[in-house]
Amino acid sequence: MTIKERDFFFRLAQYFVLGLAAFITLLPIIVVFLGAFKTNQEFATTGPFELPHSFLYLENFKVAIQQGNMLLGFWNTLVLLVFSSIGTVLTGTMTAYVLHRFDFTLKNFIRLLFLWITLIPNVTAQVATFQIVQRLGLYNTRLAGIILSMGTDIIGVYIYLQFLDSISRSLDESALIDGASFWTIYRKIILPLLKPATVTVLIIKCIGLYNDFYMPFLYMPKQSLRVISTVLFTFKGPYGARWEVICAGVMLALLPTFIVFVTMQKRIYNGLVQGAVKE
Which residues does 107 contact at the CB level (< 8 Å), separation at least 6? Predict the structure, then answer.
């Protein structure tokens, strides 16, 4: 076998694996897409891959929007994402700046403590967290979700710490000689230079929050506070579920993420690459 033939078969194997992975990923979306256009009877009597009688049947989308109040769910999700993202960026960059640029007692222990916390399952702390939220009077309020989501993100801190390794300390020293305070250095030098890493942190944070069901369902069960992930639970009851409406709701929930990805894919790719570990 010649080198060209071997390269051809190797490339063919690559495309086969990528195509198979794409098919497996898209398979559930295809099933949900087809189910969104089926009537209740169609959904119960036809197979998951069978085409609906008509792709012009939009009653499921109408029911999802009106009865599920999905527009309010989108608004609550947007509010949660905006304030949580701002809080995560501020607390993450400040924490990383202090841990990277300053020397103090127990500095290494605190850095290890952030790492050890990731080994603790989040569910084990929910009893204590729920009691604190309830005693503060934040249960069933929008503030509960915002405060719990805007805390220091451990993954974000380590991304910022790795990126700070590529930012020379001479910039800080020059600014100090010119009379700048540490706050000024952080605000005018460190924070702007951390933009690529911030894009990475925001991608991880926003995807996690948008898909999170447990936290909003536990701390914001009121109907007027439901986010897009808990809105879909409206159509699931103790005696069954309206799966065709849920499929329509899932397709509507996918639209914002699809639009954001299509319009900002270059920034997303650049952020993931530039926010990685620096040599």
Answer: 99
Tens-digit pLDDT profile for residues 33-57: 999 999 988 888 888 888 998 888 8
Domain spans, the chain = 36-274
* 214-232 core/surface letters (b: 16 or more CB in 10 A; e: else): ebbebbbeeeebbbbbbbb
Please report, in angstroms and rounded to a whole number, the separation of the first and last CA atoms in the chain.
Answer: 39
* pLDDT at site 278: 45
pLDDT at position 35 is 92
The contacts of residue 188 (CB under 8 Å, 6+ apart) are 175, 180
| CATH number of this structure's domain 36-274, picked from the four choices 2.40.128.270, 3.20.20.60, 1.10.3720.10, 3.30.1360.120 | 1.10.3720.10
